[in-house]
Design goal:
Structural class: alpha+beta
Helix content: 40-55%
Number of strands: 8
Largest sheet: 4 strands, antiparallel
Distance between the termini: 69 Å
Strand order of the largest sheet: 1-8-3-6
Shape: elongated
Order of helices and strands: HEEEEEEEEHH
């Protein structure tokens, strides 16, 4: 059990390090991988302003059953999303109020097994888009001095940025899938190896018993006296 916990902790640290390294930047996206202890509920908070769109995606990477409960609660206490014993999920909500939205992961139904959970929060902020337009306006040039309009260049760069951002998100999800598949493969390998060794020991014991029984049948301990 200690070896399994140590491996889960090492795997979580590796995924967290890579996720934070790729997630640095001016965007408000958050990626996190953590260990959810057995019989516990962990909550995280994401600050969001009104009229922003928040997309939450989570996935159970390791742990018995590969399932957790998930709840998304608004700053005023209303339950916006509720999942029970799911291995993954994607939810998109529109923020109707400013404040800290609470994301809770529940493993209280499991008394023995801890879970490794990956989740990502993507904030599509309207305010940041408006700020970007102001920045472009500050460096505007006369249309007669350039071949293309500045608005076209800005639109093309925004499109490239959005596609690169989506590519990064897909790569993050693929890393989470890879981590879960690797855990399943290692767990299945351990089970197959254990039962194979057990069957081998049983076969050896049965063979030794049969050989001993046959030798006892043909072993004549009586002597004939003339």
């Amino acid at each position: 059990m200690m070896n399994v916990s140590a491996e889960l902790g090492l795997l979580a640290g590796l995924i967290l390090t890579v996720g934070l390294t790729l997630g640095l930047g001016p965007n408000q996206n958050v990626e996190f991988t953590f260990l959810l202890p057995a019989g516990r509920t962990e909550c995280f908070f994401q600050t969001t302003v009104r009229n922003d769109s928040m997309e939450v995606e989570y996935q159970v990477i390791a742990g018995s059953g590969l399932d957790v409960g998930f709840t998304l609660i608004s700053p005023s206490g209303f339950r916006l999303v509720s999942d029970f014993r799911r291995s993954d999920g994607i939810h998109t909500v529109d923020a109707t109020e400013d404040g800290d939205y609470r994301l809770c992961f529940d493993n209280s139904f499991s008394k023995l097994s801890e879970k490794m959970v990956f989740f990502e929060v993507i904030i599509n902020s309207q305010s940041s888009a408006g700020g970007g337009r102001d920045d472009w306006a500050d460096v505007a040039l006369a249309e007669s001095m350039v071949e293309y309009k500045l608005e076209d260049v800005r639109a093309a760069m925004d499109s490239v940025y959005q596609r690169l951002e989506r590519t990064r998100q897909v790569q993050t999800l693929l890393r989470a899938f890879e981590a879960r598949d690797r855990y399943l493969l290692e767990d299945n390998l351990w089970r197959v190896s254990f039962w194979s060794c057990l069957n081998l020991l049983v076969m050896i014991a049965v063979s030794a018993t049969q050989i001993y029984s046959l030798r006892r049948l043909f072993d004549d301990t009586k002597r004939v006296h003339t």
